[in-house]
Design goal:
This protein is of the alpha/beta class and 240 residues long. The protein contains six helices and eleven strands. The chain is globular. Bound molecules: adenosine-5'-triphosphate (ATP) and magnesium ion (MG).
């Protein structure tokens, strides 16, 4: 994809060609999308690439990390995507904001959680981000006494980003790597999300393949086929 090529009526392109094909062009503007997958399936890298591609097309984005320090996140991304040589430049130009946010501050009271959300909003407003990534919800789970409380907090978070008008990708770690018993255990439902993208693997440990599928995407048609993908130095390659 060339610079500036991102744009499909009313949608945010992911900039990942094969993924845009599955999404019939991209994610509808302002949709709140859960990207769920087992450890190591590329949730961090894939969502970072979406912001990177959009930033190159001059659509500002904000990457908010709950589970990694900014420095180590950027080091990991640059090491995996060694062809992305303009990440720092995009950050300098304010097309991309990367921020680490401690989830522990949300612990305890409703006031604390509201202050935490206000902190996130400040990051988003910093460069008028239109596309936002939260990576990941998983470190938030132990701060709540049960799945019900956690689900309620996630609901508030999603509603907040919906009100901000941002198109948001929110990652969550799931338990099984295997597509046959893949499940989201911590949330009581995914009704609060407009979209659900599933990342998992098929095959055995040692010789498995990554698979991506769109489980749901409100306000848009999409492919129901799961496609293999690979993580390369030039980005995520979703096969067509
Ligand atoms: N430098 C690299 N070169 C090649 N592949 C890499 C490199 N770094 C990471 N990967 C691939 O990316 C995967 C990890 O990607 P990523 O960190 O985005 O996954 P994740 O789903 O966010 O994991 P986690 O659940 O730990 O947060 C690894 O399993 C590996 O396959
Ligand atoms: Mg990750």
């Amino acid at each position: 994809m060339e610079d500036g090529e991102i744009s499909s009526e009313g949608k945010v392109s992911t900039g990942i060609l094969g993924l845009d094909s599955l999404l019939f062009g991209g994610v509808p503007l302002r949709n709140q999308v859960l990207v769920a997958g087992s450890p190591g399936t590329g949730k961090t890298l894939m969502t970072f690439e979406i912001l990177y591609r959009n930033a190159k097309a001059r659509i500002p984005g904000a990457y908010i990390s709950f589970d990694e320090h900014k420095r180590s996140l950027l080091d990991n991304v640059k090491s995996a995507f060694s062809n992305f040589d303009d990440v720092d430049e995009l950050i300098e130009k304010n097309m991309l904001v990367v921020s680490e946010q401690k989830v522990l501050t949300s612990y305890g009271s409703r006031e604390n959680f509201e202050a935490f959300v206000a902190g996130l909003n400040k990051v988003v407003k910093q460069n008028s981000a239109q596309v936002v990534v939260l990576d990941s919800l998983s470190p938030m789970r132990p701060l709540f006494v049960n799945d019900r409380e956690f689900t309620r907090a996630v609901n508030l978070l999603v509603e907040n980003f919906r009100n901000l008008g941002a198109t948001t990708f929110i990652t969550l770690e799931t338990e099984s790597r295997n597509i046959n018993n893949w499940s989201i255990t911590d949330l009581l439902g995914t009704y609060m999300f407009d979209g659900l993208i599933r990342l998992n693997t098929v095959g055995r440990e040692g010789s498995f393949q990554f698979l991506i599928g769109i489980v749901k995407m409100r306000r848009s048609n999409h492919s129901n086929v799961s496609m293999p993908y690979e993580i390369t130095s030039k980005g995520i390659n979703v096969f067509k």
